[in-house]
From TrEMBL:
One of its GO terms (cellular component) is peroxisome. Belongs to the class-I pyridoxal-phosphate-dependent aminotransferase family. Alanine aminotransferase subfamily. Its cofactor is pyridoxal 5'-phosphate. SUPFAM superfamilies: PLP-dependent transferases. GO terms for biological process: L-alanine catabolic process; photorespiration. This is Aminotransferase class I/classII large domain-containing protein. InterPro entries: ALAT1/2-like, Aminotransferase_I/II_large, PyrdxlP-dep_Trfase, PyrdxlP-dep_Trfase_major, PyrdxlP-dep_Trfase_small. The lineage of its organism: Eukaryota, Viridiplantae, Streptophyta, Embryophyta, Tracheophyta. It comes from Trifolium subterraneum. Residues 84-452 form the Aminotransferase class I/classII large domain. Pathway: Amino-acid degradation; L-alanine degradation via transaminase pathway; pyruvate from L-alanine: step 1/1; Photosynthesis; C4 acid pathway. Keywords: Aminotransferase, Pyridoxal phosphate, Transferase. It catalyses: glycine + 2-oxoglutarate = glyoxylate + L-glutamate; glyoxylate + L-alanine = glycine + pyruvate. PANTHER family: ALANINE AMINOTRANSFERASE (PTHR11751), GLUTAMATE--GLYOXYLATE AMINOTRANSFERASE 2 (PTHR11751:SF373). Gene3D superfamilies: 1.10.287.1970, Aspartate Aminotransferase, domain 1 (3.90.1150.10), Type I PLP-dependent aspartate aminotransferase-like (Major domain) (3.40.640.10).
Length: 481
């Protein structure tokens, strides 16, 4: 009897190759422990509401009214909802083709795409065309659609930062392309060095790859660094010189915890440079409702903006988007509300400003507590989380721990993270899931646990780590820095 089409040996090999550490072995063990009744602190995914962040009131009011439009006919609606939320809900309903239950244009509701274009224009000071903005079910889908358009086969290389967010490695594997790593420099606060870019592309070309795209994640995940305008200029020049499309993952653009390097979009830097680059470098930029102060991960809303992409390609991307009929419509409304929030003078402005500011200020404090906490631990060093939602400390493991991991059949950082999970309930992701230099070990946590719980979490981490080091350290040296 030959194997059936969905028997394991018959399925697409690329599906088997794609790895996704954020929900990998550690996560599975954490869910098992949770079922057994252990308290688990899930710091493996940047999922703010799952760790207690409250949704902002205004966007939820507007979407609630859009979801239940009969409330708008209720004479008491004004007692429950502010007038600006009511007006906004009516306005959104008027631009859908039958409310939230109807498919929208496959590129997203034109009125929301216009709101996104106006936001980009306000942010960057350069025009943005709604026709070149497509709304998607989260930034993940946008990235997947874009990579799908780029990758033809195993000879196509995509440059990806290492450490990287595994959406990229997994999607490239799924689509049968080849990941071309470029390393971020940990000792320079995870900076991006153009010599490293040149080295990476030369090695890939030497292997016969056609390198087509370069990904930047700014602010970085898992590394938390913010790129300077100078660094972005170098990257754009590199893409121009090497004929690469730049994929700018900017989902953390409002999560900034220092003042020296505010977020600057790749699009703005490209336009600032002027011609010929501004007219020629192809750029696709991504954003999401999942992060920032909204944190609405479960709603699945994202967009991508295309710059210098020819109309025939834009049409093909439209055709492919049409296969899925329509992005999630409620999420499109969240996107509209994210890019066009209440303004000073609006009834809901004060509450909106208080809530959003409160979240970002608390994240800023949490970033500090976490980094300082890690740096107070034996054999742990951690760069400050300048932006995004993660800490990515390096753990210097003693040789005895490396041996114990080997005996247990585990990668050393998986071994460490599993022990951490069993001892403390803190569920992290081992650095090997993001890529790291040979012989160097990290873990990633989010900075999302509630601020008041943070000191206790860091105390329990420190207690575990220092006991672990005590157990395995024999003063023969460590994994190298
Ligand atoms: C760098 C990066 N890009 C994209 C995404 C996906 O975002 P979304 O929830 O919009 O799919 C994430 C989610 O954590 C991320 O960290």
């Amino acid at each position: 009897m030959p194997p059936k089409p969905l028997d394991y040996e018959s399925i697409n090999e690329n599906v088997k190759k794609a790895q996704y550490a954020v929900r990998g072995e550690l996560y599975l063990r954490a869910t098992e422990l949770q079922k057994e009744g252990k308290k688990i602190i899930f710091t493996n995914v940047g999922n703010p509401h799952a760790l207690g962040q409250k949704p902002l009131t205004f966007p939820r009011q507007v979407v609630a009214l859009c979801q239940a439009p009969f409330l708008l006919d209720d004479p008491n609606v004004g007692l429950l909802f502010p007038a600006d939320a009511i007006a906004r809900a009516k306005q959104y309903l008027s631009i859908t083709s039958g409310g939230l239950g109807a498919y929208s244009d496959s590129r997203g509701i034109p009125g929301v795409r216009k709101e996104v274009a106006e936001f980009i224009q306000r942010r960057d000071g350069y025009p943005s065309d709604p026709e070149l903005i497509y709304l998607t079910d989260g930034a993940s889908k946008a990235v997947m659609q874009t990579l799908n358009t780029i990758i033809k086969g195993p000879g196509d290389g995509i440059m990806v930062p290492v450490p990287q967010y595994p959406l990229y490695s997994a999607t490239i594997a799924l689509l049968g392309g080849t990941l071309v790593p470029y390393y971020l420099e940990e000792t320079a606060n995870w900076g991006l060095d153009t010599n490293e870019l040149r080295k990476s592309i030369s090695e890939a070309r030497y292997k016969g790859l056609h390198v087509k795209a370069m990904v930047i994640i700014n602010p970085g995940n898992p590394t938390g660094q913010c790129l300077s305008a100078e660094n972005l200029r170098e990257v754009l020049q590199f893409c121009y010189d090497e004929n690469l499309v730049l994929l700018g993952d900017e989902v953390y653009q409002t999560n900034i915890y220092q003042d020296e390097r505010p977020f600057i979009s790749s699009k703005k830097v490209l336009m600032d440079i002027g011609p010929p680059l501004s007219k020629e470098v192809q750029l696709v930029s991504f954003h999401s409702v999942s992060k920032g102060y909204l944190g609405e991960c479960g709603q699945r809303g994202g967009y991508f903006e295309m710059t210098n992409i020819p109309p025939e390609t834009v049409d093909e991307i439209y055709k492919v988007a049409s296969i899925s009929l329509s992005p999630n419509v409620p999420a499109q409304i969240f996107m509209g509300l994210m890019v066009n929030p209440p303004k000073p003078g609006d009834i809901s402005f004060d509450q909106f400003a208080r809530e959003s500011k409160g979240i970002l200020e608390s994240l800023r404090r949490r970033a500090r507590i976490m980094t300082d906490g890690f740096n107070s631990c034996r054999n742990v060093v951690c760069n400050f989380t300048e932006g995004a939602m993660y800490s990515f400390p390096q753990v210097r493991l003693p040789p005895k721990a490396l041996e114990a991991a080997k005996q247990a059949g585990k990668v050393a950082d998986v071994f460490y993270c599993l022990k951490l999970l069993e001892a403390t309930g803190i569920s992290t992701v081992p650095g090997s899931g993001f890529g790291q230099k040979e012989g160097v070990f990290h873990l990633r946590t989010t900075i999302l646990p509630a601020e008041e719980e943070m000191p206790a979490i860091m105390d329990s981490f420190k207690k575990f780590n220092d006991e672990f080091m005590e157990q395995y350290e024999d003063h023969r040296g460590y994994s190298r820095l």
